[in-house]
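Late entry, written up from scratch paper. The run itself happened at the end of the previous shift, but nothing got recorded in the book at the time, so transcribing now.
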Amino acid sequence: MAAAIVDLDINEGDTFLMTLEGWENADNTIPIDWSADTFKGSFEFNGVNIPMVLTLYPSTGPIQNVLEATVACSLMVDLPSKGKYDIDQMLPSGECYRLIQGNVRVSQEVTK
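Output as recorded:
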């Protein structure tokens, strides 16, 4: 499975939030069962990793079948103008798949 490639434009100093939905079909009516899987993700700027907090909302809750990635605004300061990111999925069998990846362009914060 090839990772989705999505480049991001982010604002330095802002809280980062991204949500991903997983569906088995094009009609978005059959959710992918991610309940046994684990996920990891991070930004990388000049060799420094900033980890994402990944929260999985299962297909039975009020927010259905969503993987939410966040990074606190306190970690999103003093960033260089560009970097990269990815989010990986680990299956119970030990297989690992990259779900999404891309380049990051940072709009520098002026008012501090």
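Residues 4-107 form a domain with the Immunoglobulin-like fold (CATH 2.60.40.10).
(Scratch paper discarded after transcription.)
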